Amino acid sequence: RYSLFYNHLKNIEENEGGLDKFSKSYKTFGVNQFVDGGIYCKEWAPGAEAVFLAGDFNGWNPFSHPYKKMEYGKWELFIPPGQDGYPPVPHGSKLKVVIRAQNGELLYRISPWARYVVRDEDKVNYDWVHWSPPQSYIHPSPKRLKSLRIYESHVGIASPEGKVASYKNFTYNVLPRIKDLGYNCVQLMAIMEHAYYASFGYQVTSFFAASSRYGTPDDLKEMIDIAHSMGITVLLDVVHSHASKNSEDGLNKFDGTDSCFFHSGHRGNHQLWDSRLFDYANWEVLRFLLSNLRMWIEDYRFDGFRFDGVTSMLYHHHGIGTGFSGDYNEYFGLHVDEDALCYLMLANHMIKFLHPECITIAEDVSGMPALCRPVAEGGGGFDYRLAMAIPDKWIQIIKELKDEDWNMGNIVHTLTNRRYEEKYIAYAESHDQALVGDKTLAFRLMDAEMYTNMSVLSPLTPVIDRGIQLHKMIRLITHALGGESYLNFMGNEFGHPEWLDFPRRGNNESYHYARRQFNLTEDHLLRYRFLNAFDRDMNKWEEKFGWLASPPAYVSEKHESNKVIAFERAGLIFIFNFHPYQSYVDYRVGTHSPYEILLDSDAAEYGGHQRLDHSTEYFSEEYPHNYRPNSLMVSKIFFFILLSSELLLKFFGQIWSLFWEYLGEG
To answer: What does the record give as the active site (predicted)?
Structure first.
């Protein structure tokens, strides 16, 4: 695999003048304006008989501006500036590439390199708009983060109103919220233009265009710049695993053939996603995809990428009907698409070489070995991979098991089962669980009572009490034990009460569920604010102590009959009591320091019962316990405790939590 990567890299050096020049092709392909106002156009259309440029600038004459045919299926056109120095193709004017196919048919296409496409309300397909305004940035990108706390976001649904929200709304209403919650990274979904809104952005039609349904490219650039001013890293959810089948406003059949950019025939179609699959062995496909990554970094100043559908890319079977047990035979053999793997290695190598501060994340459910090790070691080069087994485990536990049947060893195994020295992003739930047809943790725990009993004026029912406490407990143990980074999908931090469903025929094109009701956390009569406050403080304590950037946890206890889990990380001791009805008095845990209460989730601000004396101090003794030289007797433990030489966090009741501050030597 490394040899394949090295040979590709060497060929690029010899034939294209290096990876730097090769990946900068977005500045020459498509339609680009020179400093003197002249326009240079370039396309790759190997199946075309002739290529022309038509648009507002020439009265939509399909033949007045023909491209010149070059080698290897490339076509170019230069339009000199006007006599007054103005560009011949004005900013904001509409364009189309006109392809004469091999059968003589004229095809009006959007350039694969188009930077801006829009759709009028009365039209089905998108129009290509020439976009070349001046650029200006004020704020530098944040430094590379040690602890990554990711807020997974979708701009269009980021409003309580039933409509498509804007970049401006996200900039001035959502970014401050993300900052306040303690997340230091926002991962943006559905930015690459997609004709079908309900695809969640995963059926991309224009790879170089920021979605116009939220605003202009400059609005997105402003949003990223403001995020940087807040110290927030911005990642793009990039889709290079497949493309929309659209031909009128997509890549499909751009030159009239089914093999331009994609594999021809059956291999070029994804049977589950109903989309086209890239030919990663093709030289021009590599140019297109690598340049696409670089454009998003350099034009928009994204700080990295979450690569979607990596499992589909890695294997010829695309993961369809295939399980992964961890056996190495599943990862090495003819079923692996080494061309796709080589592309991912090239992409990560390019990003780290040109922009070493950038972060890359792989969405891979298979567990491909070394995917998150450096390319120089023969690895895939990613920084992180998603711990996709964790949310599935929580769903399985809540859906299938009674509280008293929860298996502590199985929970710990799922949270800690990751490849050594490969970084994982832990999450209890993401956008997948929020979509219609599935349920979020809050919905699974509280279900219909979320509509009737979330007011503080109504009685605290057992269902709501259990649901609120377990919601906090599950998210915190995932945060602390599950990986080297943490991810949350927008709204899930406060237990958003509704599923996510985009407007489509099946729901009469309704936007009612395509929104996030952030206003629920601002109503002091609703219990959602308790979950919101806890999530915020959980992140802020991680910011102080940095457990995500620390080595993996040492688990000292997973007691099946007591339903207790205890582990150490970043100098902290975490203790969870998952027993549905048993609390403990004078429960011994290994430690070496005295503590006092600093933060208590049994306090009123977290929806607790205020049962703890915050003036109590706890002292350790030289009494070995759980292979630790000293221990501490905790007077009460209901569900969760975190101890530290500086801090103790404790959850009592169904999870009543406490943070304790280190007072001195024990």
So the answer is: 308 (nucleophile), 363 (proton donor)
Residues 69, 74, 75, 78: is their CA dihedral positive or negative?
Answer: negative
Secondary-structure breakdown of the chain: helix, strand, coil percentages, each rounded to the nearest 5: 30, 25, 45
The count of other CB atoms within 10 Å of the CB of residue 95 is 22
Coil, helix or strand for 266? helix
In Å, what is the CA distance from 274 to each residue of 194, 243, 252?
A: 14, 9, 12
Q: Compute CA distances 390 → 94, 415, 500, 542, whole Å.
A: 47, 6, 21, 20
How would you write 193-243 as a 3-class SS string? ECCCHHHCCCCCCEEEEECHHHCCHHHHHHHHHHHHHCCCEEEEEECCCCE
Residue ranges of the chain whose pLDDT lies below 70: 135-136, 592-604, 607-609, 611-619, 635-666
Clarify whether 622 is annotated catalytic: no
d(CA 526, CA 512): 21
CA distance 209 to 197: 15
Q: How far apart are alpha carbons 648 and 637 in whole angstroms?
A: 13
DSSP state, 308? Answer: T
Q: Mapping DSSP to helix (H, G, I), strand (E, B) and coil, where does residue 164 land?
A: coil
Q: Is 70 helix (H, G, I), strand (E, B) or coil?
A: coil
pLDDT score, position 39: 95
Token representation of residue 384: 């992180």
Is the full-model pTM beyond 0.85?
Answer: yes
Rounded to whole angstroms, the Cα distance separating 584 from 600 reads 17
Cα separation of the two ends of the chain:
54
Q: Nearest Cα to 318, choosing from 369, 276, 373? A: 276
* pLDDT, tens digit (0-9, with 9 covering 90-100), for 97-132: 999 999 999 999 999 999 999 998 888 899 999 998
Distance (Å, rounded) from C-alpha 16 to C-alpha 369? Answer: 32
C-alpha to C-alpha distance for 656 and 603, rounded to whole angstroms? 8
Under a CB-based contact definition with an 8 Å cutoff, are residues 157 and 500 in contact?
yes
Burial of 121 (0-12, 13-18, 19+ CB in 10 A): exposed
- Residues 6 or more apart whose Cβ sits within 8 Å of residue 651: 469, 472, 473, 476, 576, 577, 601, 602, 638, 639, 640, 641, 642, 657, 658
**CB neighbourhood size of 226 (10 A):** 18
| Contact criterion met (CB below 8 Å) for 336 and 316 | yes
Residue 458 in tokens: 């109504």
Cα 607 to Cα 403, 538, 555, 636, distances in angstroms = 22, 15, 29, 19
Of 127, 219, 279, 308, the catalytic one is 308
The CA distance from 552 to 555, in Å, is 9
> Which residue among the candidates 127, 225, 237, 363 is catalytic per the annotation?
363
Residue 308 annotated to the active site: yes
**Hey, what's the torsion of the CAs at 446, 450, 452, 456, to 10 degrees?**
100
